[in-house]
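Input structure tokens:
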């Protein structure tokens, strides 16, 4: 009798796994802790920027990166949980899944915890945008000062015939100080 050749296994459809309330609560709690820490770091960053305290900024950057990595990991886990449950991805699907968990398992607070987390995320995004604008403004000021020290000033923005702004293209050399 000839040896049997192994047959390739046919892929079996995966059974969707139901979301577990405790797992979801832990995920939201972990993301909330990371978000609260990030918000605190962003507030400290804003204070350091206002006080021109550059020494604290590099340490804050490393801590912010850890928080954002934790939040990205939480988002990845949410996508995986939704996919394992056979649900489409996205925030709407997550919200519907939370509502279904609350109804099916009689656990309350998941939707409220999620709403609180999304509010914290909004605050972080807003604070980060403000800090980014402060950094950009500081860089622009520093560049202007350096150009003045070099004896260069940016040409003012002028309008062309069509009414468009030329944007101050070019640099005029002016002597600020003669030796």
């Amino acid at each position: 009798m000839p040896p049997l050749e192994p047959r390739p296994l046919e892929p079996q459809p995966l059974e969707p796994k139901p979301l577990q309330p405790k797992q979801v609560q832990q995920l939201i709690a972990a993301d909330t802790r990371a978000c609260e820490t990030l918000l605190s770091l962003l507030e400290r960053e804003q204070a350091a920027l206002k006080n021109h305290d550059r020494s604290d900024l590099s340490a804050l950057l490393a801590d912010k990166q850890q928080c954002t990595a934790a939040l990205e990991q939480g988002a990845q886990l949410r996508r995986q949980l939704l996919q394992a449950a056979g649900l489409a991805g996205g925030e709407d699907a997550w919200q519907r899944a939370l509502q279904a968990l609350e109804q099916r398992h009689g656990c309350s607070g998941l939707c409220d915890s999620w709403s609180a987390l999304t509010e914290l995320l909004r605050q972080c995004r807003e604070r980060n945008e403000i800090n980014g604008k402060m950094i950009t403004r500081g860089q622009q000021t520093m560049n202007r000062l350096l150009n003045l020290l070099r004896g260069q000033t940016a040409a003012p923005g002028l309008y062309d015939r069509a009414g468009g702004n030329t944007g101050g293209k070019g640099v005029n050399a002016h002597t600020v100080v003669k030796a």
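The longest strand covers residues 152-154. The CA atoms of residues 2 and 73 lie 52 Å apart.
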